[in-house]
Structures are given as C-alpha cells and as structure tokens.
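FORM 7B: Structural annotation worksheet

SECTION A. Query
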Amino acid sequence: LSVNSLTPTERKKAQVALAYLTKKRDGTIKGQTVYNGKPMQEWLGKEDNMSPTVNLDSILLTSTTAAHEGRDIMTTDIPNAFIQTDMPQTNEKVIMKVTGVLVDILVKLNLDKYQGYVVYENGRKVMYLKVLKAIYGMLQAALLWYKKFRADLEGKGFVFNRYDPCTVNKTVNGKQLTVIFHVDDCMSSHVDPTVNDDFLKWLNENYGEHGEVKATRGEEHEYLRMKMIFRNGELKVDMVDYVDKMLEEFPIRFQLKEDNTPTVASNDLFKEDLSKKLTESQHKVFHRTIAKVLFLSKRARPDIGMTMTVLCGRVKSPGKKTG
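SECTION B. Predicted structure
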C-alpha cells in the first residue's frame, strides 16, 4: 500500500511484523512471520478476539468414552489454518508494517512489485501491507478461524454440543463420530476406522492447500501437552515428559528421592517469611513455574491441587521459605 493512501488512524493502528525461527521436535527449522497483535488490545474488545477452546472436561470425558467403546482415535493438526481464513470486509483496513531485512527479502523476491512502496521512517525501511488473511499473532485470528471451521463442520452435518462450543458429534453408520478441537488441533473418534479416513480426506480437501493435514493413528497420541494412551478399554493420561522438561528448565537442581510420600504438601507448606522477598529474577521464575505446574495439576496431577492453591496465592508477592 502507498503510505499516502492510509488514514492517520490506519497508520497508527498498523502493527509491526515479527519473524521467528523455532526448532521442531523432528529437528527441522520452522520460520514464521507473525503479526504483533498485543498493542491491538487498546482497540479491540474481548468479544472481538476471544475464541472458544475445548474444555478440559470435554477432552477427558469424550476420550474416556472413546476408550471404553474401543473407538479408532485420530489426532490431526491443520497447517496454516489462519492464513486460510479471510479477513472480514470492513471500511477500515487492517495494516501490517514490514520493516528491516523483511523488506529486503520482499523486494528481492519481486523488485517491480514492491520497490515503489518502500519508505523510510526514522532511518529504517518500512513497507505497509493490507492484511487480507488472518495471521498468527492477530488477536482476532483464532476467532475468525473458529467461525470458519464451525460453519464448515455444520455444513457437513455435525451438531455442536450446547455446553462446549468445541465439541461436535455426527451419527455415521449408526454410530457416533465425535470431534473435539483446540483451534487447529483436532481429535476424532469412531468405532469404524474408515470413518476417520473419510474425515481426514475431508480435512485435506478443505484445508490442505498450504500443506498436508497429517494424522496420528493408534493407541498413543500427543494432544495439548498430554500423552493420551488408549488401551484395553481404558484411558491413561501421561505428562512425564512435560514434568521432565519443566525440571530441566528450572534453575535449581533437585535431588529427587523415590519414596512413598502420600502427598506433595510438606509439613512446612504454610511457612513463609514475607520479610525476605524473592529477587525480581527469582519472582519471574517462580511465577512462570507455578503457571506450568498449575497446567499440570488440572490435567494429569489433580493430587497436587491443594498445594497449588497455596502457591498460587503467593504469586503476586512471594516470600522465602522460613527455616
């Protein structure tokens, strides 16, 4: 876009593109350019950017049912879901600013198309782009994708659960096909494996344009940080790998003991010396770790719930342990 074609409000709301490189589990390097949506909280209300996500109770209940009935389980990840979602057509354009080396890359890819739109702001190259598709990082991107995915599922005959907007069912061959989803991560189950085959084919036909929708089949699945094992009519939720990684990232090393302690709540759990505050760096580590353990306690370790209640109450202004 030409800078002169933008209104002052559009230029003010234009957000910078951020580029990240991450190493995936299989060792490959993934590059991703995202929209810096955090400043948009000033202009967007919660109703404009809050997307539903599958309820934990729904995950456990549907998975337990699937295990008991001996259903075929399939987990899928829809690649580049947001970029397949159109931005709503409104009078006010959504603008993203590309800066620095990203401008050089675009110009190198197509000199004739982009060179005339490069401007300098505070000595830095800048290019303004109109956003036509939802982009990772945009506050409203997940909600826009949800609306599209929901409409597509309803068009295929799925019925949404009245208590959980990310749980859907459909009767196929006289048996229930259940799909739960967290943004673009899906888990589907049916007693007939060919029904999951057809659902995977439908996913690829509708969302496989920018990459194949790959599926995991069998007894073991990784879903939302949980290792879920469907075996002998039972469901087992395992988060040992999550705990190991959390302990590796914690700056203090512990000498772990194998014993028969009935609870993680120590005798001095409620003892805290508020006169001895944690340093700023220690406070950040404490806060981050408590958030991770809280996630764990709600999924695979409900037994540590009481201890977490105490520790969560200390997050705002933690003191050191007495003694």
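SECTION C. Observations
Residues 77 and 185 are 5 Å apart (CA to CA). The chain has a mean pLDDT of 86.

SECTION D. Sign-off
Analyst initials: ____
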